[in-house]
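Marked as duplicate of an earlier ticket. Keeping the data here for the record.
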Amino acid sequence: MYRDLDILISAETTLDSWYDDGCIIASEIISEFSIRDWEELARNVHTKPLEWQKKLAYCLDTNCSIHELEMLISLLNTEDEELFEMCIDTLRSFTKTENKQMILENPFIIHRVNELIPKAGVATKRILQDFLINIQS
């Protein structure tokens, strides 16, 4: 299944096509991942182009599984603000107590969100603030 996901995300598409159809198909593929697929994704994700990583981050809330959470936390180790913000946006779907605890165990996440809020645009600021509210409730 990892190969199917890689082929799909690597395909050249318009943004509209990706957000209308591609992410839905990617989410379906991810929902069928085995442990081996998650391991292969973890080994390869940081070698992929930035746009590939952004597409992945957008669709990693299919089941809000521990594997998706771990992958998002891994992707948060980026200098790219857009990828970081996309991961934070997706993390807002992870509402289980154990998921929130795992996020809180990585203090760099909260620190970086707080750094980004003052310079963020209105929509992004709302996403970042909503994340902080959700994670602490």
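See parent ticket for discussion. Residues 67 and 118 are 31 Å apart (CA to CA).
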